[in-house]
Recover the amino acids of this structure.
């Protein structure tokens, strides 16, 4: 009886595994070859394109640095050239002036000599005339002085008229009030330190602003308790009053009630005896 061949169920076939292993080895070999080729194309870890760009960048930096140096050198040369051109122009102008002087001096020498001689003659004639006039000068001066004395003798003495007594008016003055007087007359202001002592200042804005005595007077009066200034206004003294009163109010802060005005008739001397009870007295500043 024929026996069947028995099949072993535990038999392992290795052919597929070897195929996969060979394929894997081939792939690895291919990868290694590719990496080797890529590495051979690099120089110091960079591609030729990167190396070229780096070299171009270095060249640009070098050219930029060289351009800066050249520009600075050029600027210095331009400045030196402008300076030299300016100096050359000045020298040329000096040379032209010298040449002009040399040319004119030679041509005009004789002419100037003649003119100089004529001027000398004219000067001598003038000196003679001056000496002649000087001899006539002293007699003329004596005659003029004599005539002036004669005119002075013939003039009548000035008449100022009777003294003008200033009298208090209105409702009177409060007890303790101190009154100071300023006379406004034409182009001047006369301010009284006391009944007799007085000073004069021209009634013009620049003089009033700069006059030491008048400003000292206004400053001292405003510091006196219950003080008041009365302007004695002559017939032609309105303008002087406006300047003086305006300066006192604007500069030293005088109130309206601290400034009074009183018209004065005639041209006589001011008499303040009626204000003896209220008259303020100040010491004038020392003269320098």
């Amino acid at each position: 009886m024929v026996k069947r061949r028995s099949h072993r169920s535990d038999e392992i076939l290795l052919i597929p595994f070897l195929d996969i292993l060979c394929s894997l080895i081939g792939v690895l070999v291919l990868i290694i070859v590719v990496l080797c080729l890529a590495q051979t194309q690099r120089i110091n870890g960079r591609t030729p394109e990167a190396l070229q760009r780096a070299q171009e960048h270095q060249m640009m930096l070098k050219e930029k640095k060289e351009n800066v140096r050249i520009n600075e050198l050029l600027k210095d040369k331009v400045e030196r050239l402008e300076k030299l051109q300016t100096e050359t122009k000045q020298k040329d102008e000096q040379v032209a002036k010298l040449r002009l002087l040399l040319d004119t001096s030679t041509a005009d020498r004789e002419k100037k000599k003649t003119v100089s001689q004529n001027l000398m003659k004219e000067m001598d004639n003038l000196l003679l005339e001056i000496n002649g006039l000087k001899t006539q000068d002293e007699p003329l001066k004596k005659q003029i002085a004599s005539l002036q004395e004669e005119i002075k003798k013939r003039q009548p003495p000035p008449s100022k008229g009777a003294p003008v007594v200033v009298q208090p008016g209105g409702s009177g003055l409060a007890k303790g009030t101190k009154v100071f007087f300023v006379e406004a007359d034409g182009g001047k202001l006369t301010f009284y330190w006391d009944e007799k002592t007085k000073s004069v200042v021209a009634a013009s804005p620049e003089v009033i602003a700069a006059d030491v005595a008048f400003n000292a007077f206004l400053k001292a009066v405003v510091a006196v308790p219950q003080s008041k200034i009365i302007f004695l206004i002559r017939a032609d003294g309105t303008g002087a009053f406006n300047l003086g009163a305006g300066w006192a109010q604007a500069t030293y802060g005088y109130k309206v009630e601290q400034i009074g005005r009183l018209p004065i008739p005639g041209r006589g001397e001011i008499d303040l005896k009626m204000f003896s009870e209220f008259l303020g007295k100040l010491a004038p500043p020392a003269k320098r």
